[in-house]
Amino acid sequence: MIRVQYFARYREALGLDGEQLSDSQGFATLDDLRQHLLARGGVWQVLAEQNLMCARNQELCSLDEPLSEGDEVAFFPTVTGG
Amino acid sequence: MAIRVQLDAFDPGVETNALHAANVGVGAVVSFVGYVRDFNDGREVGGMFLEHFPGMTEKALTKIAVEAEQRWPLLNIQIIHRIGRLEPGEPIVFVATASAHRQAAFDACAFVMDYLKTRAPFWKKEDTSEGPRWVEGRSSDQSAAERWHKA
């Protein structure tokens, strides 16, 4: 299983704060997982945004980050704290 | 080092004083306080909600503080960030760095803020005169953070 979380504007657009995905689809990288989500169409296109940020196991990473069984992934818009 | 992510308000003056009270070797404290403004991007702002990523937020802030300690000779560093509902005029963020001499404290404080702005998972949703809106990231914040990459 891979746990996926969505934050802020993405969470609102998707109407979902997270989900568990079976990794039987064999996602090699975080971008493979994102492509799977984008293929759902409709509101999921929000994950195609150029300034999308992502994290693996609570560390910022790039979309080519390798994924492993049990990972926790998050997608979110550009951060705006401070 | 102290990192706090909290719903409650804080007093920047009290926090600044506490930073050197414990160590008379501190010759310089530089602090930054960020406040909620009542106006942003052409609209009146009546308040905001700060969302974050529990767990990752604390890790990200700690990582930034540790990097600051590695780059400058700091005697102390404190980061406080509010979450939840905030009103105009309230402090959102407090970063203070303590060092024997001023330059390390100045530079480390700016570094922590620039990295916090671009790497800590917080998101602001403003209540504006025309309804709620998510604050968008600024490219100037990215540029500010990038200047530390070469240093």
TrEMBL record, chain A:
Signal peptide as annotated in the record: none
InterPro entries the UniProt entry points to: Beta-grasp_dom_sf (IPR012675), MOCS2A (IPR044672), Mopterin_synth/thiamin_S_b (IPR016155), ThiS/MoaD-like (IPR003749)
GO BP of this protein: Mo-molybdopterin cofactor biosynthetic process
Source domain of life: Bacteria
GO (cellular component) term, any one: molybdopterin adenylyltransferase complex
Record-stated family: Belongs to the MoaD family.
Protein name: Molybdopterin synthase sulfur carrier subunit
Record organism: Pseudomonas taeanensis MS-3
Lineage summary: Bacteria, Pseudomonadati, Pseudomonadota, Gammaproteobacteria, Pseudomonadales
From TrEMBL, chain B:
Region Disordered, residue ranges: 127-151
Molecular function terms, GO-annotated: molybdopterin synthase activity
E.C. number(s) listed in UniProt: 2.8.1.12
Pfam families linked: MoaE (PF02391)
Annotated transmembrane regions: none
Tree of life domain: Bacteria
An annotated GO BP: Mo-molybdopterin cofactor biosynthetic process
Name the UniProt record assigns to this protein: Molybdopterin synthase catalytic subunit
